[in-house]
Each structure stands twice: as structure tokens, then as C-alpha cells.
Design a protein that fits this description.
The chain is of the alpha+beta class. It has 2 domains: about 35 residues; about 120 residues, Sandwich (Immunoglobulin-like). The strands form 3 sheets. The chain has a 4-stranded antiparallel sheet with strand order 4-3-8-9.
Length: about 180
């Protein structure tokens, strides 16, 4: 009888730990995967001169200059992530004062798939909250937010629009 009670108690402990392990693995894959999955060139293949030039010197255009002047940011990337179930949007803060409105928690960002007009939101998890940065911005840092890609609607090469309150950047091509 005592042995059965001990066995049941140990089984119950394992049932409590398993969800925590699953959550830890999920968080690790979401936060770390973009760093190694989306590198420009694998370690065994050198990057081409074209790839190096594209990474080091972005070509300025009117929209990029407007973003820097009006909002104090530059878009660094927008990519599919987590097996195309999420869209990873990253931007560098150039002027923290101008960019402050983008970090307000009460403003709900969304992404518009231009081909279909569908609106995709930032997932809001019970334990982590919204999958976006909402702390005060700092100059020179790169910040991120994830948009859910339900049904894998958005594909590489599709054009999207990111909207955060009054901020709007159009014609971003998903990598």
C-alpha cells in the first residue's frame, strides 16, 4: 500500500514537470531559432560578395528615410519563422524619443497581407503576454515582434504592411 502511494506521488510529480519542460523548449525555439536558422550563409559556405554588400550597406529609399526621420527606426528584416507559423519583424531604433510610440502596450500592432487583405495580429500568450517588445527603446538596439501566420497564409516573397497605431510601413517583402 505504501509502495503504491509513493508510486502515484512520483507519477504526479512527473505530470507537473512535463508541461514546464515543453514550455521551456517552445520558448527556446522561438527566441533562439531566428539567430541560427536565418543566418545569411551556413558556416561551411562563405557568403558571396553580393550577400555581404546587401547586409553592410542597405540601399536607402524615400520610405526608409521617412521612417528614420518621422519614427526614428529602420526596418532590418521581416522573415518567416517557426516553420512558417510566425512572421518575425525586426527593426533598429535610431531615435528612442521618436520611436517611443511604437512601444506603447495599449497599441496593438498588426500585419496586413497585401494579396488577400487579411490582418494578422501579434500573439498574446497567457504566460508571456504579447510576443513583442514594449519596454522603453534604446538607440542602436534591434527590437522584434512576432505576428501569427495562421494557416501559413503569408509565404516568402509576399508583400505585407506593418501597422502600429499611426505608424505604417508598406510593401515589405517577406524573406
Amino acid at each position: 500500500m505504501i509502495q503504491q502511494a509513493t508510486l502515484r506521488k512520483e507519477q504526479f510529480k512527473g505530470a507537473q514537470v512535463a508541461p514546464l519542460v515543453v514550455m521551456a523548449l517552445l520558448l527556446t525555439s522561438i527566441l533562439i531559432a531566428p539567430a541560427w536558422v536565418f543566418s545569411a550563409a551556413p558556416a561551411d559556405e562563405p557568403a558571396t560578395a553580393t550577400e555581404n554588400a546587401a547586409e553592410s550597406e542597405p540601399t536607402p529609399d524615400a520610405e526608409a528615410l521617412d521612417l528614420a526621420e518621422q519614427w526614428g527606426i529602420e526596418v532590418t528584416s521581416i522573415r518567416l519563422s517557426t516553420h512558417d507559423h510566425m512572421i518575425d519583424y525586426r527593426y533598429r531604433v535610431l531615435d528612442a524619443d521618436k520611436a517611443a510610440d511604437l512601444f506603447k502596450r495599449q497599441i496593438k500592432p498588426h500585419l496586413i497581407h497585401q494579396k488577400t487583405g487579411k490582418v494578422l495580429a501579434v500573439p498574446d500568450t497567457a504566460k508571456l503576454g504579447p510576443l513583442r517588445n514594449s519596454n522603453m527603446p534604446q538607440n542602436g538596439r534591434i527590437y522584434w515582434m512576432f505576428f501569427g501566420n495562421a494557416g501559413k497564409l503569408v509565404h516568402a516573397g509576399d508583400k505585407v504592411t506593418v501597422v502600429i497605431g499611426d505608424f505604417r510601413v508598406e510593401n515589405l517583402v517577406v524573406e
